């Protein structure tokens, strides 16, 4: 039996990004939900293990990739969502290819297109590549603008995170706000979802994040109180961008 097409598609640059950023919100999104991991491909055999994968405890790039696939399967099953893994290798194993799998995936979706969520790209060049490629393809398809979600844990380090001052702070911050400011220069960033997780939602999210166990130690080294109840994962934020009118005389 052919499964129903997704009503929501979340583009996750890496295996853990959708869960870190949206695990609390996912049950509220139109189902079925599919998480699409862009940098999910197997590394070519000539690559030595990356610094990050070595820090996670792996001896080879292939071992790390196999483990990440297994971790992701557990997390998505726990959240009750489908998953699709594209063939682009992760950044350290990048072969310099364009992200054409995004084009093929989005173009193959049935019409009307499902709701699409993209990362805003905070502090991560890989995330911005995914965002910009998908925005370009969706524009070519004449599709509605997607929703844009705050990348966690990066955006969650703002002192104002999870408060009514979050957007103002992102508009001023020169460490975690640059991607938001870039988007806000082109779009009006209307708030679509502002979720401060309840204890029940937090427990569910924490369990899903624990599925990515190989990465938790180095993530905690970089992000401190990653899994604290009051830490950077405690709130989730999604915007609905609206195109700003072009100045008179500007090229279309």
From TrEMBL:
SUPFAM superfamilies xref list: LmbE-like (SSF102588)
Organism: Streptomyces chrestomyceticus
Lineage: superkingdom: Bacteria
Lineage start: Bacteria, Bacillati, Actinomycetota, Actinomycetes, Kitasatosporales
Keywords, alphabetical: Zinc
Protein name: PIG-L family deacetylase
């Amino acid at each position: 039996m052919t499964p129903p097409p997704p009503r929501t598609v979340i583009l996750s640059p890496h295996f853990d990004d959708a869960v870190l950023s949206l695990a609390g919100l996912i049950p509220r999104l139109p189902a079925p939900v599919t998480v699409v991991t862009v940098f999910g491909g197997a590394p070519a055999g000539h690559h030595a293990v990356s610094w990050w994968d070595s820090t996670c405890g792996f001896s080879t790039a292939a071992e790390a990739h196999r483990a990440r696939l297994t971790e992701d399967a557990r997390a998505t099953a726990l959240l009750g969502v489908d998953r699709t893994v594209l063939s682009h290798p992760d950044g350290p194993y990048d072969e310099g290819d364009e992200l054409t799998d995004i084009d093929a995936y989005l173009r193959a979706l049935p019409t009307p297109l499902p709701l699409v969520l993209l990362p805003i790209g905070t502090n991560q060049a890989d995330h911005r590549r995914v965002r910009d490629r998908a925005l370009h393809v969706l524009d070519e398809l004449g599709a509605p603008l997607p929703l844009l979600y705050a990348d966690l844990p990066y955006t969650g380090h703002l002192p104002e995170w999870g408060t009514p001052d979050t957007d103002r702070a992102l508009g001023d911050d020169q460490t975690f706000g640059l991607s938001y400011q870039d988007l806000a220069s082109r779009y009006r960033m209307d708030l679509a979802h502002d979720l401060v997780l309840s204890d029940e939602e937090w427990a569910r999210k924490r369990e899903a994040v624990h599925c990515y166990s190989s990465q938790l130690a180095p993530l905690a080294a970089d992000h401190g109180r990653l899994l604290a109840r009051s830490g950077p994962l405690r709130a989730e934020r999604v915007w609905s961008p609206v195109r700003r009118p072009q100045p008179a005389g500007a090229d279309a």
